[in-house]
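Inverse folding, one chain.
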């Protein structure tokens, strides 16, 4: 990729700014929502798939080593009484 001159860069920035300013606010908001919905979880962005798999492995190991006591397990599975 070759270098661009200062004048070409200013022209590019000006075009981008004008395009942004002419776009309606609701269209910008929709684009932000779509971009946010497609964003990866923070764990994957920071540590990749290896970090996510490590966290899953630790959680699985933690529940095997230190499971909930019987009285807490029974409370967790109870459903609220509807009248």
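Residues assigned per position:
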């Amino acid at each position: 990729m070759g270098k661009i001159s200062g004048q070409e860069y200013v022209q590019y920035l000006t075009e981008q700014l004008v395009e942004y300013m002419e776009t309606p606010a609701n269209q910008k908001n929709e684009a932000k929502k779509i971009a946010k919905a497609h964003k990866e979880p923070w764990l994957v962005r920071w540590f990749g798939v290896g970090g996510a798999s490590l966290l899953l492995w630790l959680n699985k190991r933690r529940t095997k080593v230190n499971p909930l006591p019987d009285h807490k397990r029974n409370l967790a599975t109870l459903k609220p009484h509807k009248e």
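The two ends are 71 Å apart (CA to CA). The chain has a mean pLDDT of 80.
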